[in-house]
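Module 6 notes. Inverse folding takes a fixed backbone as the condition and produces residue identities as the prediction. Think of it as a translation problem where the source language is geometry and the target language is the twenty amino acids. Below is one complete input and output pair. Work through it position by position during the lab.
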């Protein structure tokens, strides 16, 4: 099955050495294409409701190093309940 955490469009399938796979039998399978699963579409739609358009980027991969203004606040945290893990964004270095 598809690992939903790897099925989003941000840098989908580009991080070959970062524990993602194109093999359907692998636990880290990222899916046929970004948002190929209805669950990831639902979470993305919900996040778009929470974060207004001015807090989103047209080209997030190309603007990763560009800070938002001081007046923009928000965070997305992925909680892995079965493992008891809290996964921070992959660029977080602490």
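Target side of the pair, the amino acids:
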């Amino acid at each position: 099955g598809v690992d939903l955490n790897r099925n989003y469009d941000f840098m989908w399938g580009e991080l070959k050495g970062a524990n993602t796979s194109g093999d359907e039998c692998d636990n880290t399978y990222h899916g046929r294409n970004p948002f190929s699963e209805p669950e990831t579409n639902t979470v993305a739609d919900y996040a778009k409701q929470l974060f207004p358009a001015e807090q989103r980027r047209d080209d997030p991969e190309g603007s990763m190093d560009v800070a938002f203004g001081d007046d923009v606040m928000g965070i997305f945290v992925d909680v892995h309940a079965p493992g008891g893990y809290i996964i921070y964004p992959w660029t977080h270095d602490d």
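Reference fact for the lab report: The chain has a mean pLDDT of 79.
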